[in-house]
Amino acid sequence: MRPSGRALDQMRDISIETDVTRHAEGSCLIRCGDTHVLCTASLEERVPPFLRGGGQGWVTAEYGMLPRATTTRMRREAAAGKQSGRTQEIQRLIGRSLRAGIDRNALGERQITVDCDVLQADGGTRCAAITGGWVALRLAVNKLMKAGDVITDPLTDHVAAVSCGVYAGQPVLDLDYPEDSQAGTDANFVMTGAGSMIEVQASAEGSTFSKGEFGELLALAEKGVAELVAAQKAATA
């Protein structure tokens, strides 16, 4: 039995509330069980220096956790004077993932920054950030298209992410923290709405996993991503 009582292939309850901030071009609050992430997309009519004059746009991301997102207070990274390696790795992952679903030529020479702030953490924060980040990005692009600044929709497909793992000897979908902290294998799958893989992060924790088990995790991830994409479509309809 899973600690939550869920079936092996059952996702946590997913909700996506859009337009939750006043100023951002796109915003949403995504809730994956007890993991809650605020995602905002901000438009700038400029690109990084290495892209200037090339006609291509850019999508980047930043990620952070509020001090009481977890059971004990964490010191703000700004107070520490630097970001942790984990934070840098996650925000690079979010940026890579979202760029995989966008035509940067169609976006034009402008940048969209997606900020993902974890309000409450219970496992899978990076996956929730990617899934919610795409919704915020979609809403920001919608405004560009409505204003006539972009003619062709630059978003080529949905992008969503989900975690899977081997817990108590069983492959399970959408790990919460009690499972994540005890899983023998932990994997994050980032995929498009069409089912293509963007990135897979998988590691064994104290024991190895087989090709067959990886195949089971992939099948679970495909099911989970399909449900997340359905939630994205409903939120942005």
TrEMBL record:
<feature type="binding site">
    <location>
        <begin position="124"/>
        <end position="126"/>
    </location>
    <ligand>
        <name>phosphate</name>
    </ligand>
</feature>
<feature type="domain" description="Exoribonuclease phosphorolytic">
    <location>
        <begin position="10"/>
        <end position="140"/>
    </location>
</feature>
<dbReference type="InterPro" id="IPR036345">
    <property type="entry name" value="ExoRNase_PH_dom2_sf"/>
</dbReference>
<feature type="binding site">
    <location>
        <position position="86"/>
    </location>
    <ligand>
        <name>phosphate</name>
    </ligand>
</feature>
<keyword id="KW-0698">rRNA processing</keyword>
<dbReference type="InterPro" id="IPR015847">
    <property type="entry name" value="ExoRNase_PH_dom2"/>
</dbReference>
<keyword id="KW-0548">Nucleotidyltransferase</keyword>
<dbReference type="InterPro" id="IPR020568">
    <property type="entry name" value="Ribosomal_Su5_D2-typ_SF"/>
</dbReference>
<comment type="function">
    <text>Phosphorolytic 3'-5' exoribonuclease that plays an important role in tRNA 3'-end maturation. Removes nucleotide residues following the 3'-CCA terminus of tRNAs; can also add nucleotides to the ends of RNA molecules by using nucleoside diphosphates as substrates, but this may not be physiologically important. Probably plays a role in initiation of 16S rRNA degradation (leading to ribosome degradation) during starvation.</text>
</comment>
<dbReference type="InterPro" id="IPR001247">
    <property type="entry name" value="ExoRNase_PH_dom1"/>
</dbReference>
<keyword id="KW-0820">tRNA-binding</keyword>
<keyword id="KW-0808">Transferase</keyword>
<dbReference type="InterPro" id="IPR027408">
    <property type="entry name" value="PNPase/RNase_PH_dom_sf"/>
</dbReference>
<feature type="domain" description="Exoribonuclease phosphorolytic">
    <location>
        <begin position="159"/>
        <end position="224"/>
    </location>
</feature>
<comment type="similarity">
    <text>Belongs to the RNase PH family.</text>
</comment>
<keyword id="KW-0819">tRNA processing</keyword>
<dbReference type="InterPro" id="IPR050080">
    <property type="entry name" value="RNase_PH"/>
</dbReference>
<keyword id="KW-0694">RNA-binding</keyword>
<dbReference type="InterPro" id="IPR018336">
    <property type="entry name" value="RNase_PH_CS"/>
</dbReference>
<comment type="subunit">
    <text>Homohexameric ring arranged as a trimer of dimers.</text>
</comment>
<dbReference type="Pfam" id="PF03725">
    <property type="entry name" value="RNase_PH_C"/>
</dbReference>
<protein>
    <recommendedName>
        <fullName>Ribonuclease PH</fullName>
        <ecNumber>2.7.7.56</ecNumber>
    </recommendedName>
</protein>
<dbReference type="Pfam" id="PF01138">
    <property type="entry name" value="RNase_PH"/>
</dbReference>
<dbReference type="InterPro" id="IPR002381">
    <property type="entry name" value="RNase_PH_bac-type"/>
</dbReference>
